[in-house]
Design a protein that fits this description.
Elements (H helix, E strand, L loop, with lengths): L17 E6 L6 H17 L4 E6 L10 H14 L3 E3 L3 H11 L12 H7 L11 H14 L2 H8 L4 E4 L2 E4 L14 H6 L2 H4 L8 E4 L8 E2 L3 E3 L4 H4 L4 E5 L2 E4 L1
Parallel strand pairs: 1-2, 2-3, 5-6, 6-8
Antiparallel strand pairs: 1-9, 4-5, 7-8, 9-10
Amino acid sequence: MPERPRISLKEAALPAGHRAYVVGDIHGRADLLAPLLERIAADRARHNDRQSHIIFLGDYVDRGPTSKDVVDMMIDLSRADSSIIMLKGNHEAAMMTFLQDPLKGKRWLHYGGDTTLKSYGVDVDLATLDEKSIDRIIRSFRRKLPDSHLQFFGTLQSSFTLGDYFFVHAGVDPANPVDEQREHDMLWIRNSFLSHEGLYEKVIVHGHSIIPEPEFKENRIGIDTGAFYSNVLSCLVLEGDRKEIL
């Protein structure tokens, strides 16, 4: 097989006439999402001759206090605007595992799932978790989780491609072509991706790995600025060969 062409950050561009807004990990911070959406709407209005896209990189839930509100906002947004792209994060995947098999997926409760459950009105005491309490928790969660929310989690995409960019939650396995990635890697990968310096067929735009400020590397752009504790929810704006933070 011939070597696939590689592209660097400097060369990467969107198709002419397109403008993309890429939002990092929200993690239950509706209070940060609401003003950011207002800023995006105002910016889109100023560039209304472009075909715009809003791309969310996943991890809507966990850690922050208002996961349910965030999901409500995302559902309303998707119903009102067909240009919205919503990707799956590892925290959504972990929650779905818990819903399907609570004992197998109980680890989710310990890395942010407890705050998500509280936002749905389900009490959790991590100090006293046992099989009986997990059974109580899952029964209550299944009753209180709206069908629209379950449908939302079930329809999230693993990745999205536009122009010279590949949008994904965590990253890609450098050993495999971009279009042959496993979903598990796209949701969970970290060290082998972050340390890789070689170019890919696309520039990878990702969240998942927290950094103090957006990171622009030759082969990737990372925009998870740890909103749940830093109070900074970052949005990358792409148009032509320009890469800016809103």
